[in-house]
Amino acid sequence: MPEDQLLPPLEYFRTQLDLDEQVSLLRDPEQALSFSLTEKLSRNVLVISEPAGLTLAPTLIGQLTGIRGRLDVWWKRLDPDDQAYIIENRNGEFDVKEYAGLVHGAGLASSAEGSLAGVVSDGVTNQFRLPPMIRVYVEMKATEPSS
Questions:
Q1: How many CA atoms within 13 Å lie on the side-chain side of 66?
Q2: Do the Cβ atoms of 93 and 125 come closer than 8 Å?
C-alpha cells in the first residue's frame, strides 16, 4: 500500500483484520505478533521490531490499551444480566429502546479515537448491531476463560 494511502491505525485495525485477530490484539496489544499478523499490519506500517520480536507500533498499542480500559470500566458497570444478554446476542440485533443507552454508556462516543459507541438503527425495526469496537470487546469477553 503506498504511503499516501495509509489508513489511520484504528480504521486499518477494524477493516483489515478478522474478528479473532482484533480480539487477540485488544486482549494483549503488546504481544509478539505472529507471522501472518505481521504481514497484514506491516502493509500499513503498524509494526515495529523489538528485541522480543515484532510488536504493534506504540501509537496503536496506546489506542487499544485506552479503548480496552474504558470498555473494562463500562463492562463492570453493567448489570450481570445485561452482560449475559449482550454476550448471548453479540452477533444479532438489539432493541434501541432497551439497549442503546447501555451501549452509549461505553463512553467512547467522544473519545480521541472517534465515535466508537455510536448506535445506528435502521429506523424501521428499531434494531441496531453493536458498534465495531464494542463488538470486538464483547467477543473478547465471551471467549475469555472463566475465572
A1: 14
A2: yes
